Amino acid sequence: MNKLGIKEIEQILPHRHPFLLVDYIEDYEPGKYAVGYKCVTFREDFFKGHFPQEPVMPGVLMVEALAQTGAVAILSLEENKGKIAYFGGIKNCRFRGKVVPGDKLRLETTIIKCKGPVGVGHAVASVDGKVVVDAELTFMIG
After folding, report:
1. Could you tell me which of 52, 68, 131, 135 has the C-alpha nearest to residue 98?
2. How does DSSP classify residue 129?
3. Residue 92 half-sphere exposure, CB side, CA atoms within 13 Å?
4. How many Å apart are CA 117 and CA 90, to the nearest integer?
5. Cα separation of 85 and 14, whole Å?
6. Quick one: which of 138, 120, 141, 134 has its CA closest to 63?
7. Among candidates 94, 85, 33, which has minimal Cα distance to 62?
8. Cα–Cα–Cα angle for 21, 106, 104, nearest 5°?
9. Residues 103, 21, 120, 28, Cα dihedral to 10°
10. Which residue of 16, 112, 121, 122 pairs with 70 in a disulfide if CB–CB is 3.0 to 4.6 A?
11. pLDDT tens-digit profile of 56-113?
12. Is residue 135 within 8 Å of residue 83, measured between CB atoms?
């Protein structure tokens, strides 16, 4: 298994706190897939306004965390090192549950197509084995 801590992730992704949404990568294969985690705490900046009376992680941030996980897989390829993976599109996104403080969000993105600077990934986020988001994400390498 290929593991990455936060320092190694920061060497691959340009994101930084508070927008780096992957705490660690459990396993990955360059150009194929990445499995990461976001440990959600009540101290997250977004909980101040979403929603203070019932804190829920915004769906768009869950999708961004999945995209960042996929970017680790794409940008780990030798030919993509030092580049940026931009969000190119999203299809068939479904939110199936909420994520709250204390959850450990599992992020898995599998690259299903890659041609030139464009890649497509199938992304699934889950908590305790229950899928909370699934989508098809498009990346553009620049």
Report:
1. 131
2. T
3. 10
4. 16
5. 9
6. 134
7. 94
8. 80
9. -80
10. 121
11. 999 999 999 999 999 999 999 999 999 999 999 999 999 999 999 999 999 999 999 9
12. no
CA–CA dist 77, 106 (Å, integer): 22
CB-based contact 141:119 (threshold 8 Å): yes
The token duo for 105 is 């969000």
Confidence of residue 1 (pLDDT cuts 50, 70, 90): confident
Cα(30)–Cα(67) distance, rounded to whole angstroms?
A: 15
What whole-number distance in Å separates Cα of residue 22 and Cα of residue 77?
19
For the chain, percent of residues with pLDDT exceeding 90: 97
Task: At 11, list the tokens.
Answer: 């060497």
Q: Is there a contact between 116 and 140 (Cβ–Cβ < 8 Å)?
A: no
What is the Cα–Cα distance from 34 to 90, expressed in whole angstroms? 18
What tokens does 19 get? 């927008």
CB 6 within 8 A of CB 24: yes
Round to whole Å and give the CA distance between 61 and 4. Answer: 21
Provide the whole-model pTM. Answer: 0.97
